[in-house]
Here is the input.
Amino acid sequence: MTANFEIEPLDKLNFNAFFSLIEELAAYEKLPPPDTEAKKRLKQDGLAANPKYNAYLARSDDQYIGYVIYFMTYSSFIALPTLYLEDIFILKQYRRQGVGTKFFEFCLSRAKALGCGRIEFCVLDWNTPAQNFYDKLGAQRLGWLFYRVNREQIENSKLES
Amino acid sequence: MTANFEIEPLDKLNFNAFFSLIEELAAYEKLPPPDTEAKKRLKQDGLAANPKYNAYLARSDDQYIGYVIYFMTYSSFIALPTLYLEDIFILKQYRRQGVGTKFFEFCLSRAKALGCGRIEFCVLDWNTPAQNFYDKLGAQRLGWLFYRVNREQIENSKLES
Here is the structure.
């Protein structure tokens, strides 16, 4: 079965649907979803003249069924921008119908159009369905460890900006 | 022993020193360094009005001894920008003198000034000196797997932009 859908950019009209999908992804990843203040920032940051992230939604008839978020990073060794894929998410009932593959192909075409030398992303270590999906598409799993410093650590740093 | 040094932004005058340091890092990481074409792009992309990456160098007297590269990504769950730390590199003879820690503190202060909710970065799995360094500074190693799609795969995608 193949879902019939269109990919459209985030805008004022589909923002609430986008936000609901993010809440669904947070539940799936067992991570806390954005709160009300975060929702406001997300809207402002995504719909600004120079948006802080790029988001596209998949719409099937009048139902929004998934989204992708990416931004530009950069490789100093190959001196080309990298398309950093932050999230691909598809509602459970629309999975295994080619939507994820279409989103990935969409990212490949954006990367090509933007002159990127690489696409990079991270997958949770327990998320084997996602790993199988990306492995099948030919992405290479590299031996890098992923680190994070959180907001409290940034705010409590004794340093002056 | 503590090295005496200043942190200064990348500019036209220090670009060649910056490029030599990148070549040193590539050798250390056993990865191919940028070629002549890449050097041109790196200069253009780093010194543009809207640079594609942010770079700062550490200078000790008239010797450039290290650099840091970062860019802004974004967390959709906390709806705040992330400072993504691409590289910290210090010439071998200047290591273990506090330069790396100063660079990391510089990133913390930049993240604070830019209103970031997180700092994120990747470390090669065999690079235990770097892992020990970041562990000591309090960064959390997360269970994410890092993936990449390379330039050939992007260019050979059958898709139109």
Remarks:
- The mean pLDDT of chain B is 92.
- DSSP finds five helices and seven strands in chain B.
